[in-house]
Amino acid sequence: KQWYQRRVRGEKLGAHPPQYIQDQCLVTKDELGEFFGSTENITIITIAPELPGAPEMIHHLAGEGVVCSIGHSIANIEQAERGVNAGATFITHLFNAMQSFHHRDPGIVGILASEKIQHPCYYGVIADGIHTHAAALRIAHRTNPGNAILVTDAMAAMGLGDGQHKIGAQDVSVKGKLAVLTGTNTLAGSAVTMPACVANFKKYSRCTLVEAVNCATKHPAQLLKCTKLYGTLDFGSVADFLIIDSDVNVLATYIGGDIVFKSEKLVQF
């Protein structure tokens, strides 16, 4: 079970309903316990690092084993660095729902090249061709290739085609790869698949296929500290894996070592 909770800035909501946004940080263990009850079922939380009390909240949650991410934020570079040094290890969908890069204050984006953070910080990128321009993605990868993580940001419309869909209680209009809150230009997640993101990332960043696949497998497992079971094909790992071709078309899917999908193209290999 995973719970993805956000403590974010109202200015950078994205498609999230404002009534569900928490803008007051919990700075003591007693406050955290009262709000969450237990952190046992929380895998990852996004916190805007500039909020009062954010470093303290990040510190306490990271100490409980929760992966803390910074994002949905207007933080400057110093605030972002404080968040990372308090225990944050991830950036939520880089470039989106954050201050734009500026040469005098790079904001959260500057974490990729910061010399003031005390540990590596992974970053998510949505390689759907909409959320992140190819040139921006290429800059991020060339600056910090080892910590890139591919995320789809996909909502329930993925694979269902164009039309009207829902994200929670909100109406979403989908056309091609674009998903927006109906009647607005606000992006509402995406309808892209992970294989498409891997293929796009390889094309946009000009990296190898192995590097692109690692961004969807090995790197996320490293972030979540579950590499003994996921992210590799080592002995003892969970046997969930795909067979793909050089264009990242899925030829077969295995779950627990059993084949659950097989493409007709697989017989060619």
Give a description of the structure.
The strands form three sheets. Strands 1-2-3-4-5-6 form a six-stranded parallel β-sheet. It has a three-stranded antiparallel β-sheet with strand order 7-8-9, with no helix packed on it. It has a three-stranded antiparallel β-sheet with strand order 10-11-12, with no helix packed on it. By secondary structure, the chain is α/β, with parallel strands linked by helices. The chain is 24% helix and 19% strand. The two termini are 37 Å apart. The protein contains seven helices and twelve strands.
Provide tags for this entry:
alpha/beta; 3-stranded antiparallel sheet; 19% strand; 269 residues; 6-stranded parallel sheet; disordered N terminus
The proportion of strand residues reads: 15-25%
Characterize the main sheet: 6 strands, parallel
Oligomer: single chain
Helix content: 10-25%
Compact overview of the structure:
By secondary structure, this protein is of the alpha/beta class. The protein is built from 7 helices and 12 strands.
Topology of helices and strands:
Elements: E1 4-7, H1 29-36, E2 44-47, H2 54-63, E3 67-70, H3 77-86, E4 90-91, E5 122-125, H4 134-143, E6 148-150, E7 163-167, E8 170-175, E9 178-181, H5 194-205, H6 209-216, H7 218-223, E10 241-244, E11 250-255, E12 258-262
Parallel strand pairs: 1-2, 2-3, 3-4, 4-5, 5-6
Antiparallel strand pairs: 7-8, 8-9, 10-11, 11-12
Helix pairs in contact: 2-3, 5-6
